[in-house]
Specification:
This protein has 206 residues and is an alpha/beta fold. It is 45% helix and 14% strand. It contains 8 helices and 5 strands; from the N terminus they run βαβαβαββααααα. The protein has helices at residues 12-24, 39-50, 68-81, 121-126, 136-151, 157-167, 176-182, 190-203; strands at residues 4-9, 32-35, 55-63, 96-98, 106-112.
């Protein structure tokens, strides 16, 4: 019976972005994308998913937010409990993989945006902004965000910045996945390449 390849994600936006990038780069493996409906449920479901029948590889994509160390420890404590071995001190910069020996499944962990910094999916997507450091619309969106946050401090920085930028494209307000398809975001950025290298190492047989 075919072995399952599972990617656990926090929500639908994460699934759409990751799936689109994986499809664009012709990763042919059949991956099952799981919407965990939030970070807490993802962490709760991590152990049962690892122990699920016929699971060969399982990847986790989770936001660091401002709790990168806490998120890392929550996941790796589960792996320690299940008898995995490896380096548990900190995430690998290019994504972490715990290879299966006698354990139930090979496990990969990617902490958004880049396994090093606080942030979330939208911070990762911001790396896909073409010519980000010189892009005038990106700079203008950032300045507008600062002005808006002076009026409403609850506007989130990463989400506000990327969605303001996308609101000013030829076809305004496209969701993140469609923005990649339309070319408003660059799916060949170095950060995407790092993420896809991790996906390939985890899921694609040598």
């Amino acid at each position: 019976m075919p072995q399952k390849k599972i990617l656990l994600l926090e929500g639908k936006d994460d699934i759409i972005v990751c799936k689109r990038l994986i499809e664009l780069h012709n990763v042919s493996e059949k991956i099952e994308y799981v919407d965990s409906e939030g970070v807490d449920k993802l962490i709760e479901s991590f152990e049962p998913q690892i122990l699920g029948s016929e699971v060969e590889q399982i990847g986790v994509v989770i936001d660091a937010d401002d709790k990168l160390t806490n998120r890392w420890e929550a996941l790796t404590n589960t792996l320690k409990k299940l008898g995995y071995s490896g380096s548990f001190s900190a995430p690998e910069p290019d994504g972490t993989i715990f290879n299966r020996t006698r354990r139930p499944a090979t496990v990969g962990i990617w902490i958004m945006p880049n396994n090093k910094l606080p942030g979330m999916l939208e911070d990762f997507v911001s790396y896909l902004v073409p010519d980000k450091t010189t892009n005038p619309l990106w700079a203008l969106a950032g300045n507008s965000l600062v002005e808006a946050q002076a009026i409403n401090q609850k506007i989130p920085s990463a989400k506000g910045h990327i969605h303001t930028f996308l609101a000013w494209q030829d076809e305004p307000g496209k969701p993140l996945g469609l923005a990649i398809t339309k070319g408003y975001l660059n799916p060949t950025s170095p950060e995407v390449q790092n993420f896809l290298k991790w996906i390939n190492l985890l899921f694609v047989p040598l």
